[in-house]
Amino acid sequence: MHRGERRAKRPNVVMSVFVFLLVSVLAGALSAGLALPFAGLAGVTTATAHDTVQYLPQDLKTAPLAEKTIIQDADGRTIATLYQQNRTPVTLKQISPLMLKAIVAIEDDRFYVHGAIDAKGTLRALLRNQSSGGVQQGGSSITQQYVKLNLINKARTPEEVKEATAETYERKIAELRYAIAVEKELTKDQILNGYLNLAFFGDRSYGVEAASMHYFGVHAAKLTLPQAAMLAGLVKNPTGYDPIDNPVRAKERRDVVLRRMLELNVISAKQANDALKTPVINPAKVRVVPSGCANSKYPFFCEYVVSKLKANNAFGKTPEERENYIETAGLVIKTSLDQKIQAAAQTSINQHSKAGDQAVAAITMVEPGTGLVKAMAQSRSYGSKKGQTAYNYNVEKSYAGGFGGFQNGSTMKAFTIAAAIGKGVPTTYRINSPQVISLGGKEFSTCNGPTSVDSYNPKNSTKTIPDPSMVDAARASTNTYFLQLSEQIGLCPIATIATNLGMYDAQTLKPLKQVVSFTLGSAGLITPLMLSNAYATFAARGMYCSPQIITSITSIKSKKTIPTPGPNCHRVLSPGVADGVNYVLNQVMQSGGTGAKLRFGNSDLAGKTGTIDENQAVWFSGYSSKLAAAAVVGDADPPASNLIKQVFNGKKLKDASGSGTAGPIWETAMQAALEGLPTSKFVKADDKIIRGNVKDLPYLKGMTPAAAAVKLLSMGFKVQMDHGPQVDSDAPAGTVAWTNPRQEDGAPAGATILLYISNGSKAQPPTPPVTPPVPPGTIKPPPGIPSCMPWDPKCHPRRGG
Q1: Given this model, what pLDDT does residue 134 score?
Q2: What is the DSSP string of 473-491?
């Protein structure tokens, strides 16, 4: 049966109740305030009234009070407040006795002597309303008001709210019956306490504690007489008597309360006169409790926290249910935010960029070994005005505010280094790396089979030596080296390590694409949060921790901890491999490396620059063993274009690079964040990691290729001849100039040794020996050799004829 059909069959209860109340009053049955239950209607009214009773509720089911949720930083300081109703429930003992007297005096002065209903007031209201043909006057007791507030508090839809507040006799009758049930279950003090925690006092303040803190800046227990009277007067009409917008009307209403208290002998004449002279409010003491992340000092961080909460199914089945729970459950959300480190990050952003720039800057800072996200900062502030944004440039596109990342360029080479070291490739491994190479048609193995491109001619953005080692290539960010290295070891191990370190496409939330240029950062879009946390894994010697932004959730009311995902750390790299990566990336920060100008202090630092095609974004990501950070400067307004000639830090960029544009943001932020902390060093990499598990190579320079090949083959190596042009060398033309790997670096057992052949261009002609002059007669010829040669005419004088 439909709800409407059921209602249609109900008897007309208006006259039934009216007659019941009238008869009850006349009979004295309500002298204690409706002591008789409605079941007694059968004996004192009509059968119709008795019929009504079966449709009335028997008890009041209350919903938990909506309480505000607080978001805190790592030290427990509030950084944001979320609420639908600003409320802090308190016990009766935490409320000033003056407040209790004031509210009873003005709302229901016979509260402690009547039952659920004040018969006199209710009857008076019914008579007046009956004569006017509508509901013109109240007459509700505090108990009835408590019932009504509970029904409103339970309402979850606009329709339910409308039903709970409808000015109809039917709603009023249900309220009366609920009131009877409440009086059976609760004491008067409990009802009054609940009422004061539910009541609306205007300006988004629910409950006496929130109202007291809002209007006067004091707890409810400390309310003075004029303050208590003002709050008591607000309940009738919170908007009309708003002391901020309508101070005159608010004072008039407050004074009504004071005079009523005097009339009831609750206060003395002197107390009343002193209170009447008091200003209704001091605007300077009004405390506004802002709600929502937009009002937070850290709006982007706050929104990311809320997005993670809304994704937690423990808080509700649907996003709407989860949002409602978060805003009404009265939680303390403790986060990982470190305000000192956050200040360091934002100060650095402000120092190196301007809010009105075309290009944007962002940085995330993470603690190695825990995954705790210590800071997020960016150049564009939160808002909808020009130069502002609602996008968080530090995080993935998992919610409306997530920007979804940028390509990360050569910062991806760190994962290639890790994969190579894991395969046993020494950091001394050299590859002939010209400025430009052709990789068209070359097959690169992936986790799903080979891949290739028809035409691809990558080049180096920096000058490098002809055959750099892994360290040399990292220091100079040599593209052609790392592309060839990734071809040799395969893309699958590189992509696997990247995935294990939390790298995925921040736009699509799918795995990175295993493309030929994977090591150059064109596999997907990456965020500063992802990259800083991945690099933190190297600093933590291979221990990966999922980014952690929420550290605990506690109920304000029960003080109980609500389970939430804690630290999620597990080993993804061996300590030795991570130490090797730290060794290589530390060299980037040394003299001659692309990060050398960013080095500071005495702690070990490691890092990597990154620049994508057309300079649409530039990066620097680096770390100490204490903290990791990734900074990016990019074009965030699609379609993205070259940063050069875009305005950044208030002027047009003439150049854009990871070290020169993004690097200073990283340096300034890290230096301030690490200030005061002890000096830290990386664990020294094992010699086998640096040189690899290698065998010594023989000295082959100047040997013929054939002789060199025989020598190498006899030692178990494979041999390959370089088929390019012969190289400049001081070795004789046609002989071995050098090998790859170099003789001093050694090579793994069974490795292929590449022979480079000299063109002799630098060879010096042999210098004839210098023979000192010998005096005549001092040289004696060896035995058997004539002292005078046959062709010497001096030995054969001419004979005569």
Answers
A1: 45
A2: HHHHT-HHHHHHHHHHH-H
